[in-house]
């Protein structure tokens, strides 16, 4: 299978797996095989992400279209996830 492209440029890595962990962190696996950790705690202060303060809601995260999403149309940019996460 060929790598996804836009305007003949490869897309940055996309999320294939997400596991919520303690302290509002997400363990992410990308389609390039990298495993990374994203700290979502800073998002909790932003209005649109305030429902994530509820840990049960936060834990309902799922992979959607190469990124992550929660109910009620809360999602996060896959490029930003990759750039702001750290290698596990």
What keyword list fits this structure?
mainly beta, 12% helix, 88 residues, NE0471 N-terminal domain-like
Model description:
- The protein is mainly beta and 88 residues long.
- The protein has one domain (5-87): NE0471 N-terminal domain-like, CATH 3.30.2020.
- 12% of the residues lie in helices and 38% in strands.
- The protein contains two helices and nine strands, in the order βββββαβββαβ.
- β4 (25-30) and β5 (35-39) form a beta hairpin.
- The longest helix has 7 residues, at 78-84.
Rg: 13 Å
The overall pLDDT, averaged over residues, is 93
In whole angstroms, the N-to-C terminal distance is 27 Å
DSSP E strands, number? 9
Instruction: Provide the structure class.
Output: mainly beta
Strand content: 35-45%
Write down the CATH class. Alpha Beta
Total discrete domains: 1
CATH superfamily: NE0471-like N-terminal domain
Uncertain spans: none
| CATH A-level architecture | 2-Layer Sandwich
Widest sheet, order of strands:
3-4-5-9
With helices defined by DSSP (H or I, 4 residues minimum), what is the helix count?
2
